[in-house]
Amino acid sequence: MKDRIEIIGILNEIFEDIIDEGPVYLLENSTSKDIEGWDSLTNIQIVVGIEKHFNIRFTSEEIISWNNVGEMIDCILNKNTNQ
Amino acid sequence: MGMTFNELKKNLKKDFSFFKQLKLVLLGDSATQFLAQSIRGAGYEVRLDIRIFEADFNQVERQIFDFNSELYSFQPNVTVIFESGHILLQKYFRQDEKLRASFADDQLYRITDMVEVIQQHLKTNVVFFNYAEEDDKVFGNFANKVEESFIYQQRKLNYSLSEYATRNSDFHIFDLSSVQNKIGRDLLFAPAIYVNSEMVLSLDALPLIARSLVQMIGAFEGKIRKCLILDLDNTVWGGIIGDDGLEKIQIGNFGIGKAFTELQCWIKKLQQRGIIICVCSKNNEQAAMAPFEKHPDMVLRMNDISVFVANWDNKADNIRQIKEILNIGFDSMVFLDDNPMERNLVRQYFPDINVPELPNDPADYLDYLYSLNLFETASYSSEDAKRTAQYQKESERTKFKASFVNENDFLKNLDMFSDVQPFNEFSIPRVAQLSQRSNQFNLRTVRYTEGEVRRIAGSENYATLSFTLEDKYGDNGLICAIILEKHPQQELFIESWFMSCRVLKRSMENFVLNMVVEYAITNSYKTVVGEYIPTEKNALVKDHYSNLGFVEDSGLWRLDMANWKPLECFIKQK
């Protein structure tokens, strides 16, 4: 199982690819306010990008529940242990 | 090909400045931001700079019925209406139960009303997405026997929309239902995304939809493919004719032979639609022709092929030769070959030719070719079907010409006649089509839809002429059209002059000008004014007006009617 550091690295790459405005520095407590270009539209792409990369499917409730990057990681780890 | 949504989105940052610009309004009853980005990004791939005005979510009716809306001020070339099957299902639910059996009729009435209001106020092609089927399974399979079930009504509505499109030439259907048939509902629609964003198309489906839509829009702009060039061994039949011989090649009803037979049926249908079919094969000519002449299971026969080239020369040289005979651009050609080396050679020499990456297994050829949608078109007329014979006659004329030393003697002996008429109901579709297809002999490259041609034909401000050309070898059909705009001060402006390249070097230009001037003089015009607008493809007519005796005057070309003398030509008016 991947650890949190590894996952945040992967998320960082997904964010950079999708936002496409140069480097992104994600922290566990980063929110959409902290990351330029992370808006409701790019968020949809990011969600689908994460689902594809980890081969998981988020529920619609999970998608709106995250308050920061750390909670996204919790959710990914949770899926990976359950599946 | 096979681009992701994110790749299309990255195209938006690229340089569109040398591409043809056009304007598109996107109206949707779901959130369409991603669709708009996909369309613009897919436009980049076919060198179109599609400027999009995207109406706010669920503003379809307001945009259409408020004549002060952005739809009307933006003046789009193309208006795209995307209503989702999902919202349609909600409308159905709200319909009085007793009226559900007439749901499709009511919706068709609502939609055609919107379309006609747009068309009355704007010169635009309207593209309407048909509905991806959404079976609510309220009746199970029995729904097919229940007129008021949703799936029954939705299918009826899709069918009725197509039927309506056959009667409205500037109304087009984007076949979303066909996209869903190909990729499946589970891939087209992502429920979790829909719930959070009001978007009904998945990120995986968007690139496929955008590519197909842009192919349609490209066809409105004349970006169409006209010719299919075929390799033979292991492409059109299984095996190698030179080694295996006539009896051993694989074609017919057994095993892999079926795949080749079905491919040939598809090619035959394309030929019947008006696509020019050519052969380019590394073979001895006699051996290569034998199956077309003698094999009982061949679907394609020699008279389906416009140009047949079989020799041991380099395929690039042979394709160049085919191009010269047909006189069409490389970008309107498709080349099919099972051999990756040949494909790469052709791609390297002619990057504009479309060369499908055929799968290894011939059983997969046909479905793969369907998926590419290679032969999108914006029009169809019965003239199209005659094209093969016309190109075959062209090669007969080439042989006849060789027997004359003097070009004029050759032209005199062709016994050419032209029927000259103002545009009428019979010629209007063909004129629109010729405007979309003609790239080389086209002075101003204005593309017209059928509806626009019809409006011009009925307008007091214009005069129109269409020309056919027949000779001892046959009838070329309608090959040239002229649109004259009546300007003040007794000037007649040639808004459009486009001609099929099939009739080049036949003195047709002189004949056409004689007819234009005859019209001008009869109607007391003093000057005929022409304009040449250069494009990537029309250098052929760069000196057209100066060759015909026009004099340049600040970017326009003027011909004075006083002292004008008819030009020599070998064509008689019918």
Identify the notable features of this structure and list them briefly.
heterodimer; A: mainly alpha; Non-ribosomal Peptide Synthetase Peptidyl Carrier Protein, Chain A; 4 helices; globular; B: about 575 residues; alpha/beta; Rossmann fold; seven-stranded mixed β-sheet; five-stranded parallel β-sheet
General description of the model:
- The complex is a heterodimer of chains A (83) and B (574).
- Chain A has helices at 4-19, 40-54, 60-65, 69-82.
- Helices cover 61% and strands 0% of the residues of chain A.
- Chain A is built from 4 helices and no strands.
- With 83 residues, chain A is an all-alpha fold.
- Chain A is globular.
- In chain A, helix 1 crosses helix 2.
- Chain A has a single domain (4-82), classed as Non-ribosomal Peptide Synthetase Peptidyl Carrier Protein, Chain A.
- By secondary structure, chain B is of the alpha/beta class.
- Chain B folds into 3 domains: 5-220, Rossmann fold (3-Layer(aba) Sandwich); 227-372, Rossmann fold (3-Layer(aba) Sandwich), CATH 3.40.50.1000; 403-573, Gcn5-related N-acetyltransferase (GNAT) (Aminopeptidase, 3-Layer(aba) Sandwich), CATH 3.40.630.
- Chain B is built from 23 helices and 18 strands.
- In chain B, the strands form 4 sheets. A 7-stranded mixed beta sheet of chain B has the order 11-12-13-14-15-17-16, with helices on both faces. In chain B, strands 2-1-3-4-5 form a 5-stranded parallel beta sheet, with helices on both faces.
- The longest helix of chain B has 19 residues, at 103-121.
- The relative contact order of chain B is 0.07.
- The interface between A and B is medium-sized, with 16 and 17 residues.
